Amino acid sequence: MRSAAARTVRAIPTLLRIGLAETVAYRAEFIVWILTTTMPLIMLGLWTTVADEGPFQAYRSEDFVAYYLAMLIVRNLTGSWVAWQVSEEIRLGTMSMRLLRPLHPMVAFATSHLAAIPFRGLIAIPVAVALLVSSGASALTHDPAQLALLIPSIALGWIIGFACLFALGCLAFLVTQTSAIGNIYFTLFGILSGYLLPLDLLPSWISRVAACTPFPSMLGTPVRLLVHPMARGDALELLAIQGAWAVGAIALALTAWRVGLRRYEAVGA
Amino acid sequence: MTRALRLVLLQLRVNIARAAAYRADFIFNGVMTLVSMALALLPLLILFDQRKVVAGWDKPSALVVMSYFMAVEAILEGLINPSLVDLVERIRTGAFDYVLLKPVDAQLMVSTSRQEPWHVIDLAGALALAIYAFGLRGEPPALVDVLLGIALLVTGVAAMYAVFIACAAASFWVVRLDNLVYLLGALFDTARWPVQVFRGVWRIVFTFVIPVAIMTTYPAMALLGRLDGRTALATVGGTVVLLGLARVIWRTAIRSYTSASS
Hints:
The complex is a heterodimer of chains A (269) and B (262). Chain A has 15 helices and no strands. Chain A is mainly alpha-helical and 269 residues long. Chain A has one domain. Chain B is mainly alpha-helical and 262 residues long. Chain B has one domain. Chain B is built from twelve helices and two strands. A two-stranded antiparallel ribbon of chain B has the order 1-2. In chain B, helix 8 (143-170) runs antiparallel to helix 11 (212-223). The model of chain B has no long low-confidence stretch (mean pLDDT 83). The chains are: A mainly alpha (269), B mainly alpha (262). The interface between A and B is large, with 37 and 35 residues.
């Protein structure tokens, strides 16, 4: 057992290098993918128009600017498309190749996504600069300790999102048409994570439902740390909730993988 | 001409047969899409819960724009997108050669190669939403407005088709740029909202660069009886220009097509 773990750890630097090379090779594709996350900008255009006619609930125009630009940054750093990769490989049978390797496929996918993070950072920097020079700057948190919590918070958000998407991709083991389920997932994600609208603007019953799901921990929490000054204890509590969801999501992904694998038909093999 | 039409109908029949083979999927997918579309109405409902009017649009008329969005999206996802995904795949594998060898127009053949008929369920949802919106409004649209609204729905879909086929043609040069289609899909989300709620640069971009205004806002204004003749003509003209441009891009792209298989 220990040798399996040691083997995995030894493989990680190589896997990261491969992931980096892949990202560089498909750079045009990668950039187009990143540009696909335009939703925060669309909502930014809409809500600043609304807020200029007068604050919308507690949100002024600059609050919306700060919120959606922060959202764009966090979404950029935490987004992944592992659900498509997994379901596509299962559908086409190329997953068989991964099964031959002495390494859990989840680790392989995770490292290839992690390797792309520096590139995602390159895209996020101009957005961050825009945020700092925009009217939204006044609505940001200035407490350095709270800003420091942003780093683990974004990392946890990435883990939760990645693990849930991996589990979603594993659905392809059981059903052939996963796209409709994927649509529902992304609609729920859009609403409950705070991606479309700040969670405190939603009707209270929806925010209560959202609080029982992992979605706010994927995006809403890091964004909140960035734009919403709060007491130290509250910030740590948010982080603890994220940690719990991360553990749960990884357990879910591993279970989904194990259950699904038993049904694997190795199409095309 | 009749041969081309016969082939198009044949491809359509194959696709309906394919969909009929998976009847449970048909219903399941349709219902799932309806649910996600209903959830996507939430920001609009929240917005108009607090405000009576935003940028000159009240709730019923914004809902009409939304129903146009649903209709255009249903047609896009049902008729246009599956064919383009298919095309990109064929270019990547080299199977596109066989299409070019056939003595029919390649653009026509690839544009009609795949359909996903379950999206008629979404189309019905769009119609229901429009009827509900006019119910809220309290007065039905005039007959002439309905006719103009339907005509502009057709041009809206045509405009969208033009933009998509132009982007698909780009995958002749840069293989695997199929994401471009997803990028367009993301930008098209803007069309949920009347273009007037966006200001400055945004509105210029969404009116002229990525003409989402032609796709939903203007047709909705026509149905609401608010569109002046000049804008209506400009909408039709813009669509014709887009279709022409797309055709030119397609022809140019075909000429520089280097098969992936050879």
